[in-house]
Write a structure and sequence with these properties.
two-stranded antiparallel ribbon; 3-stranded mixed beta sheet; single chain; 20 helices; 3 domains; about 5% strand; about 375 residues; 5 strands; about 65% helix; mainly alpha; Serine Threonine Protein Phosphatase 5, Tetratricopeptide repeat
């Protein structure tokens, strides 16, 4: 039940934490705390392996609802990753002083926004209760201050004492329901038991959405699509519903309908003036790649090229570019993609070999020529 930040400025939120949330105020407080680590330079001071620089992320709670039904087996990052990635967490531990500094930052940030710290208060009470139950099974206290002390600091510094907790919030006319988030998380984690627990307190308006996820977990994709389309009629402006339908059609193998729904999701993000999540663009590119006609392949490659600044550090991403370029007969581009893969695998001689071969083609695109030259100069 935790969250943490890493050197590439992503905030990782464990599914266990999300499953135990009782309000969006708790999530706000947790995210404010993690932003504190970023803003106060704690990540830089604790950095072990990562030496790459990247821009600060545009954090929005609404992005949590974008977790794809098919999971994230390819390790491609969104704005906020929902998962259990302990590899990064081990690299970026903080000492007690840094944790307290992040606590104080979060309270000041909430004060500035004229928001209560009730969410943080509730979260640390849960941590305190959990550690009393499982004190012999975790080392929380080795790097974190005592929850009682943290509660004292929160209560003393908070300027707003509103005790109202919300399970529904809104972002640019998109309703965000905490129960729906938890229902969708069960699809992501494939946890049928958690879904059954949610059913005990299921809201009437969430029954169709629940049925869709239940069908998905029982491998009844057709019925899941049917229920999600019903749900879409109730949530016409929510782009994440279109993304969900696209994911279901992709699983079914209907790539044309998948790409149509991904497109609709992206159009709705534009209308709402919300930056489209990169992973939905990636899903569109993957569905177009599966259609395999030349027009779809060209569109797929254009989308993938647009995503290079965000996905350049993923082997799987460069594999997709290589496959798409190869199917289009773009040999130099596919060779550069292979070279990028080799760089990420630290096979530098092989990377330079493919980059050198790519540069021999006179028709190599400027983008790929630039990347190939960079690889040749890599030391």
């Amino acid at each position: 039940m935790n969250a943490f930040v890493t050197g590439n400025n992503y905030i990782y939120i464990h599914t266990g934490l999300l499953e135990n949330l009782d309000s969006f105020e708790e999530l706000e407080g947790i995210i404010a705390h993690e932003i504190g680590h970023l803003t106060l330079g704690h990540v830089e001071s604790r950095k072990i392996l990562s030496k790459k620089n990247s821009n600060l992320i545009n954090i929005g709670i609404f992005a949590l609802l974008g977790a794809s039904l098919s999971g994230s087996s390819n390790n491609l990052h969104g704005s906020i990753l929902v998962g259990t990635d302990f590899f990064y967490k081990k690299q970026y531990k903080y000492n007690r002083t840094q944790e307290l500094e992040a606590d104080i930052f979060s309270i000041k940030a909430l004060n500035k926004l004229k928001k209560s710290s009730i969410g943080l208060n509730r979260f640390f009470k849960k941590i305190e209760k959990r550690n009393k139950l499982f004190s012999s099974k975790n080392n929380y206290y080795s790097s974190h201050p005592n929850p009682e002390n943290r509660l004292e600091i929160i209560n003393s510094l908070s300027q707003f004492k509103d005790n109202k907790l919300n399970t529904i919030t809104y972002y640019k006319n998109i309703e965000l329901d905490l129960q729906k988030l938890k229902i969708k998380l069960t699809a992501y984690t494939k946890n049928k038991q958690k879904l059954k627990i949610i059913k005990n307190n299921l809201k009437e308006k969430n029954k169709i959405f629940y049925s869709s996820i239940n069908s998905y977990l029982n491998h009844d994709i057709k019925n899941s699509i049917k229920n999600t389309i019903k749900y879409q009629k109730q949530n016409k402006n929510n782009p994440f519903v279109d993304e969900m339908i696209g994911s279901l059609y992709f699983i079914e193998g209907n790539f044309k309908k998948a790409s149509m729904n991904y497109n609709q999701a992206l159009e709705k993000f534009d209308k709402l003036n919300i930056l489209s999540p990169p992973n939905i663009k990636l899903s569109l590119a993957k569905s177009l790649l599966e259609i395999e006609d030349k027009s779809s392949l060209k569109k797929s490659l254009l989308i993938l090229e647009e995503l290079i600044p965000m996905k350049y550090d993923s082997i799987y991403f460069w594999k997709l570019i290589g496959i798409t370029a190869n199917k289009l007969g773009y040999k130099p581009e596919s060779m550069v993609a292979i070279a990028e893969e080799k760089i990420l695998k630290r096979q530098y001689k092989k990377a330079k070999h493919f980059a050198f071969k790519a540069l021999k083609f006179k028709n190599i695109k400027p983008l790929y020529k630039m990347r190939a030259l960079d690889i040749m100069n890599y030391k």
